[in-house]
Specification:
This protein is of the alpha+beta class. It is about 35% helix and about 15% strand. The protein is elongated, with a radius of gyration of 25 Å.
Length: about 150
Amino acid sequence: MNKLLKRILKLIKQIFQQFSYNEQSTIPSSNRPLETPAIIPPIPTFAPQWQNGLILVCSQCTVEQFSDSYHRVSSSTTASEELQKWLKSRLKFDRLWGKYRVVSSSCLGVCLKERVAVVLYHDAVGQQCFIISPQNECEILYSYIKKMDQLSQK
């Protein structure tokens, strides 16, 4: 009987804590009492698919098509999308896919005509931001990715 009462009391306490959290989350922070710390519920986490680096390509920068012979032209894709596809295929070819991930982002806040904003992030090196011409500077951008990979291996 004692064990049952203890369990009931524990459940009641948890219910009151949850109710207290829900009540506090609706009260503006300036009106909350200082002596009651807010309880933060856990959020599920996951292990990312990339090991070391992330490459963000702005999807809003340009809608112009690749027009040189180096890149495949598709009537339904933008220059940003083509740049992403090209980067993914190069990373896969060099067996770097998995260490790096190419992700489309919304506006990065840098909008120059006929250019695409790209952010390279690497755990060991940090981040670098580029504004590239997708028609002419893909290889240069990729050389930075390779350089980041080499620096991380040292």
